[in-house]
Design brief:
3-stranded antiparallel sheet; Nucleotidyltransferase, domain 5; globular; 3 domains; alpha+beta
Amino acid sequence: MQIGIDLGGTKIELVALDENGAALLRHRVPTPTGDYVGTLSAIADLVLSAERELCQKGTLGIASPGAVSTRTGLLKNSNSTVLNGRPLVRDLSQRLGRPIRLENDANCFALSEAVDGAAVGAHVVFGVILGTGVGGGIVIGKELIAGHNKIAGEWGHNPLPWATESERPGAPCYCGKLGCVETFLSGAGLARDYHSRAGNHLTAKEIALAAAGGDRCAQECLTV
């Protein structure tokens, strides 16, 4: 059995697959915001619960924002900033008593689409994630191109192209720069835009629901 974890800024989702790749079960829990130890516990609990339910043990792979530094072994470049500088792979391996493979979530997405998804047959694939953050992955000839620093394809930390004067210099990004694409297009960017217009805090999901319900401010945030 193979177990995959999608570790996101908003939710953590597990899928267990049989030897033919068919899904045996899926479980999802909210991500403990700003809580590294809580995140470790949530992942471990999901894995152990799935194994008890299915009465078998599985290998484990994790798709995570950010990447593991080849120099330090610590996570870096994650929009879930509580993970940065942490030995996530080591800590989870110790908790669960097994080796763990971790790859950037956008890289996993791009490779999946290139191998057996929407991009089958394409030689060069650029996969884009728009969620809590903004990510990207590059696949050439069904081979993932991560780059020397594990950030190839991470277009979310380029400046916003053709920014207007009102958009400059842009909001601060967790990476230390101002006006990154991610500060405009992500769920967090949408929430910040709504707050600046309406004065109250809503999540991206709540903003979408508000827009569908006729909230003009929410509608403007989604269309501008």
